[in-house]
Each structure stands twice: as structure tokens, then as C-alpha cells.
Amino acid sequence: MAADDEAEVVDALVKSYEKAAVLQLPDAIRVLASIFNDVTANDIHQKSGRTHGNAGELLPVRVADMLAVMEPLHASDVFLDIGAGIGNVLAQVALTTTVRRCIGVELRKVAMKAADKPLNLL
């Protein structure tokens, strides 16, 4: 495929993705709750009195606030979450925006393992 043809295909995909429907916050919260409902603090080994190595939880309303400040996000954007934990922020961004890709970086294996099942539902 010629470079010009490839660029046209990519441009068409981006434009069609920008028109894709995204969930509004109340619907996104319901979906997120059903996806992450089975993940408990024990699954990610929360340790009382220690902040390093613990997963924090950003509530969906606060993620929405953060996204509102970052807007406008476009289909050509990539969202990067460093310290992604179980991926709940990534899931919300994927469900409520048209960003091209969501990437999560997490060092704690226990959090990554806990994220496998819920994120594969997306």
C-alpha cells in the first residue's frame, strides 16, 4: 500500500472513530462498577499504614473532573496512566472518550494480575 493510500485509510479511521458514541458518566459508572465489582482490597494487598506499593482509588467522578480539565481529547490522543493499578481509570477513559489508545504502566504484579480479568471484559 502506498504511503498516501495508507495515510488516507488512517485519516478515515480516525474520523470515523471521532464520531463513535461514548458513554456518559452515569452509564460509565454502572459499567465500571460491574467490571471491577469482584476486585477487593485483599486482591491487591492493601497494607495499612504504608503508602508506597498500595493501590489508590480514583473515583469515577474525580476521573471525570480530571478529563474535563484535559479536554478536548481527540481520537488521535493516547492516554497514559503511570501507576495504573487495576486499570479503573484506563477503563473509564476508554469508555467515556474517543482517545485512540489507553496505556497503563504498573510495576506491582499483584495489581496487574487483579486487572487481567476485569480489563479483558472491555
Automatic annotation (TrEMBL):
GO terms for biological process: DNA damage checkpoint signaling; DNA repair; methylation. Residues 54-117 form the DOT1 domain. It catalyses: L-lysyl(79)-[histone H3] + 3 S-adenosyl-L-methionine = N(6),N(6),N(6)-trimethyl-L-lysyl(79)-[histone H3] + 3 S-adenosyl-L-homocysteine + 3 H(+). Its EC number is 2.1.1.360. It comes from the Eukaryota. It is found in: Nucleus. GO terms for cellular component: nucleus. Its main location: nucleus. GO terms for molecular function: histone H3K79 trimethyltransferase activity. It holds the Pfam family DOT1. InterPro entries: DOT1_dom, H3-K79_meTrfase, SAM-dependent_MTases_sf. Keywords: Chromatin regulator, Methyltransferase, Nucleus, S-adenosyl-L-methionine, Transferase. This is Histone-lysine N-methyltransferase, H3 lysine-79 specific. It comes from Phytophthora fragariae.
